[in-house]
Amino acid sequence: MKIRTAIAAALVFLPPVLAQDEKVGPPPTETRPVTDNYFGETFVDPYRWLEGDNSDPEHMGRMTDEVAEWTDKQNAYTRSILDGKAPGFEWLKPYRDRLEAQIQPLMEIGEISAPRMAGDRYFYSKRTGAQSQAIVYVRRGIDGAPRKLIDPFALDEEGLVTVAWYAPNDDGSLLAFGTYRAGDENSVLHILDVDTGEWLADEIPGKTYIAGWMPDGRSFFYQRLEDLDDPYSGEVRFHRIGRHWTQDPVLIRQRQAEVLYQGLGISDERMAELKTTWGPEFSPGRDGHWAMVTYWTGTSSNDVWVMDLDEWFRTGRMALTPVLIGEDGRNDPTIADGMIYMQTNVNAPNGRIVRIDPHNPAREKWVDVVPHRPDAILRGFSIARGVLSASYLFDASTRIELFGLDGTAIGALKLPGTGSAGLSTARDRTEAFLSYSSFNEPPSIYHVDLTDPEADPVVWEKVDVPVDWSSIVVKRVKYSSKDGTEVGMFIVHKKGIELNGDNPTILYGYGGFDIPMTPRFRATYFPFFEAGGVYAVANIRGGGEKGLEWHRAGMLDKKQNVFDDFIAAAEWLIENGYTSPERLAVVGGSNGGLLTGAMVTQRPDLFAAAIVAVPLLDMLRYEKFLMARYWVPEYGSAENPEQYKFLRAYSPYQNIKPGTKYPAVLLTAGENDSRVHPMSARKMAAYLQAATTSDQSKHPILIWVDRDAGHGAGKPLHLRVRDAVDQQLFLMWQLGMISKG
Fold it and tell me: How far is residue 589's CA from residue 517's CA, in Å, rounded to a whole number?
């Protein structure tokens, strides 16, 4: 297939920008039309130039001076309105000040991670008060005094350095960790001596993270990118402390993935596709004898091999035995006590856990340890000393079941309530740490004994929240989508409010990549709740709430199901007396930004406002930028004639219609985003500003491109406070909760 691109001779004529005056209207954006021909159908792209420099196909969308200038003007316009400085918008300033005074202490409640256990040491991260980033601590013994190990503020006074991950060796004497700056997620691996606090000379760049320590505690396997500018250049290497990383031997390279698939009958065309998926992952067993090798073939499917590490250390030869190749499903293997334990969707759409002999991994020899359940979705598992913990979703909430390694049921772990939970375990003990939160309960860490699942969890540490979280009520409802499919939804609001069909309501969704939307505490929403707001989370198709088939029902040519489910959620809220179109907003980020962008173009009449955060919006060109070819198995490609049809049908950017009364929209992007390129948000903002017939002095189209951030991870506190205030002020304004007076 060839796509013909040509510069159109004439300008595209779009409706004039409607604004209250020249000074406060959105900055005009020049149109430079480019015509694309897709399988006989043409589309004129008026804002191609906002993608950046596309002269190098290998590095599409690099920033140009003119795009930087456009971004500065748009950012200044957005700030002038949301900061209440533009003429006619000064009335917003007191509301912003009041909202910031409410949200700042809610953002300062802090956060804490469940400890990772190694020897007699407990490693965890914690952020308190006005600290910009979480600090990594260690305790010697569970009741030992906390000792600071890594303080990001000491590394960068602007608060832009983030500790992305950390992993102790088995005895806890060394800690590997990764840092990145300004949200770019390109972590650099460092090693720290835990007793002395000294950083060793070892430093490994390249979006690096550790795959696993070896038993000697002085060596490990790790994964990185060969080329930071090439997201498809993943590799696995082996490092010994003191050796320069450039001398580390390479086990697997994504660019040479055919080495894994030798003799398995993979076509050249399919092999080329596999080289642009998420690629290889590597997990060595703690005994150093076996390792698991997986290779992502889609967004929720991977192939699995077992590797004899002894053979590799002796001879340098990769002795790989296929365990599972070519199945459409996710497989999560680990080595324990010389056996493979693997969560798999093979013959189990909701997941099961099998035990496999690495010497003879043939499928007919697999032994069910935790069988498939039709009533629950297996989301993950971990292994402690003699105990296997399985984490399930029951109607989008967590339940943790415990088993012996032979599959003998021990019982359900007692949880504090109905919400979201996770478990931190270690192979040499039965103590564990439980993380728990819900819509109406703040995040807490509990210490538990896996041999006594019915015992009440003991609080290890919890954050203090300056709100009455018991004043919030949570409901679980079911509704029918367009095709009759039943969908679940959480509804959250303050107790005792009158549901009169005119309540300001925020509807949140994601709907992709097998990721479930489960109950989460959102402290910054309490001002919204106190003002009578309703918050709803729809568990739409494409997510992971109902297993493999639920995900498949919302990907590729079935993506419209996701949008239909979300529209049906909005209509249910209206029909059941919660809200009205004038008082309803939609919020989503990343894949959820695609969702809310599609809502803007498909049903502009149904919502008053939309937050479209770090979004994919031009679905005909998305895969050309950054790592987006990873997502072709999820969305499809416009280079494929059949997939082009459904992408063209819903792609938000291509479905903007000049002369339409669009709702108010706030788009956000990160200049350092290594996942989703800001070009989608830029182009969408420019086109909507030109196309809408709404009065932009009342219902503006705004864009904020954060120059100090990426996809969102690693933002310092002050930037997160600013973003939270921006979004809530925008929503409360558009939902009629504040007014000019």
Answer: 13
- Give tens-digit pLDDT for 195-238: 999 999 999 999 999 999 999 999 999 999 999 999 999 999 99
Rounded alpha-carbon distances, angstroms, from residue 132 to 127, 162, 670, 709: 8, 9, 18, 14
Question: CB 293: neighbour CB atoms within 10 A?
Answer: 24
pLDDT tens for each residue of 432-473: 999 999 998 899 999 999 999 999 999 999 888 888 888 999
Dist CA 529 CA 470 (whole Å)? 12
Do residues 348 and 408 share a domain? Answer: no
For tokens 């996809």, what's the residue? Answer: 711
Is 565 within 8 Å of 545 (Cβ atoms)?
no
Is 215 among the domain residues? Answer: no
Question: Distances in Å between the alpha carbon of 485 and those of 184, 266, 542?
Answer: 39, 37, 13
Q: Looking at the structure, do residues 270 and 353 belong to the same domain, yes or no?
A: yes
- Give mean pLDDT, residues 359-378: 97
Structural domain includes residue 326? yes
Amino acid in position 390 = A
CB 729 within 8 A of CB 145: no
pLDDT of residue 1: 35
Cβ proximity of 400 and 413 under 8 Å: yes
Same domain, 402 and 439: yes
**DSSP labels, 498-537:** ---S---EEEE----TT--------GGGHHHHHTT-EEEE
Contacts for 76 with CB less than 8 Å, ≥ 6 apart: none
**Helix runs in 255-320, H state only:** 268-274, 309-315
pLDDT at position 378 is 98
Q: Are strands 505-508 and 584-589 parallel, antiparallel or unpaired?
A: parallel
Residues 412 and 359 both lie in one domain: no
User: Could you say which of 436, 464, 492 is where a domain stops?
Assistant: 464
Q: Is 646 helix (H, G, I), strand (E, B) or coil?
A: helix
Instruction: Report how far residue 325's alpha carbon sits from residue 459's, in angstroms, rounded to the nearest whole number.
Output: 43
Residues 341 and 432 both lie in one domain: no
Residue pointed to by tokens 């070892």? 202
Does 96 fall in a domain?
no
User: What are the CA-CA distances from residue 72 to residues 170, 678, 699, 703, 712 (Å)?
Assistant: 49, 14, 21, 11, 20
For residue 628, is it within any domain?
no
pTM to 2 decimal places: 0.94
CA atoms within 13 A on the CB side of 36: 17
Answer with the one of 328, 357, 372 that is the final residue of a domain.
372
- Say if residue 388 is in the same domain as residue 276: no
Share of the chain above pLDDT 70, in %: 97
Q: To the nearest 10°, the Cα dihedral for 571, 577, 581, 584?
A: -90
Start-to-end CA distance of the chain, whole Å, equals 58
Q: Running DSSP on this structure, what letter comes out for residue 114?
A: P
Query: Would you say 524 and 604 are in contact if contact means Cβ atoms under 8 Å apart?
Result: no
Whether residue 274 is found in the same domain as residue 331: yes
pLDDT at 610 over 50: yes
- Who's near 408: CB < 8 A, 6+ residues apart? none
Residue range of the domain that includes 285:
249-372
Q: Could you please report the per-residue DSSP string of 310-323? A: HHHHHHS---EEEE
Which residues, 6 or more positions from 638, have their beta carbon under 8 angstroms from its beta carbon? 3, 38, 619, 620, 621, 623, 644, 647, 648
Same domain, 380 and 303: no
Q: How many domains does the chain have?
A: 2
Q: Are strands 458-462 and 472-480 parallel, antiparallel or unpaired?
A: unpaired
Can you read off the two tokens belonging to residue 424? 């931190």
- CB of 306 closer than 8 Å to CB of 314: no
Q: Are strands 188-193 and 174-181 parallel, antiparallel or unpaired?
A: antiparallel
3-state helix, strand, coil in the chain (%, to 5): 25, 35, 45
| Sole residue written with tokens 């039943």 | 486
The percent of residues in the chain predicted with pLDDT above 90, rounded, is 90
What's the CA gap between 485 and 504, in Å, rounded? 27
